[in-house]
């Protein structure tokens, strides 16, 4: 594959220590895959890569997954983990925090961020516990069934202007778990 698109004549004369961190990562990936293994262990394979290199390595890993290869992917960049992994395990200070699919870990329940105008504030507060008011508009995170909320808005003649689905990212989940365990405290 195109892990290392580099001139062979140049590569033959060059010592490894003369390569950039990104090129060394690519060479390491090529060495890992040269014998077409069924099981692959990757420790921070995108470390030191530019955006194009990160994209290429990610695509190679996804291609390996599609071929049915088993990949153990270790990374501190949790957005990469979200894009690549089917199942995850998170460790903090040697303790296993969680293991499972992204849906099992983060939950399949999305929250809805809503924004609108008009309506009965007392009723809106029941639907939106963190209700914020600004000028003639209200906003916050919906608690409850979105369909029932829409019916309620219609009954009180309120206007819904925005409804966005939100879910914690893996990084947000990780930081939340660290705070709950007293491992990390934010200055909020």
Task: Write a structural description.
Helices cover 40% and strands 25% of the residues. By secondary structure, the protein is α+β, with helices and mostly antiparallel strands. It has 2 domains: 8-85, P-loop containing nucleotide triphosphate hydrolases (Rossmann fold, 3-Layer(aba) Sandwich), CATH 3.40.50.300; 111-166, no CATH class. A 4-stranded antiparallel β-sheet has the order 6-7-5-8, with helices on one face. The protein is elongated. It starts with 7 loop residues before the first helix and ends in an 8-residue tail after the last helix.
Summarize the structure.
Helices cover 40% and strands 25% of the residues. The chain is α+β, with helices and mostly antiparallel strands and 188 residues long.
Q: Top keywords for this entry?
A:
188 residues, Rossmann fold, 4-stranded antiparallel sheet, 8 helices, 8 strands, 40% helix
């Amino acid at each position: 594959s195109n892990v290392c698109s580099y001139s062979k004549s140049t590569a033959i004369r060059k010592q490894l220590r003369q390569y950039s961190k990104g090129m060394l990562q690519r060479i390491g990936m090529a060495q890992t895959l040269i014998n077409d293994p069924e099981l692959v262990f990757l420790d921070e394979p995108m470390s030191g890569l530019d955006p194009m290199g990160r994209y290429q390595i990610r695509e190679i890993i996804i291609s390996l997954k599609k071929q049915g290869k088993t990949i153990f992917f270790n990374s501190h960049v949790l957005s990469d983990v979200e894009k690549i992994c089917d199942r995850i395990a998170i460790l903090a200070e040697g303790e296993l925090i969680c293991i499972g699919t992204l849906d099992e870990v983060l939950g399949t329940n999305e929250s809805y961020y809503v924004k609108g105008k008009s309506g009965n504030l007392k009723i809106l507060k029941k639907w939106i516990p963190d209700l914020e008011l600004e000028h003639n508009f209200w906003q916050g995170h919906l608690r409850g069934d979105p369909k029932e909320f829409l019916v309620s808005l219609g009954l009180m003649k309120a206007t819904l202007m925005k409804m966005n689905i939100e879910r914690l990212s893996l990084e947000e989940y990780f930081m939340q778990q660290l705070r709950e365990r007293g491992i990390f405290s934010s200055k909020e």
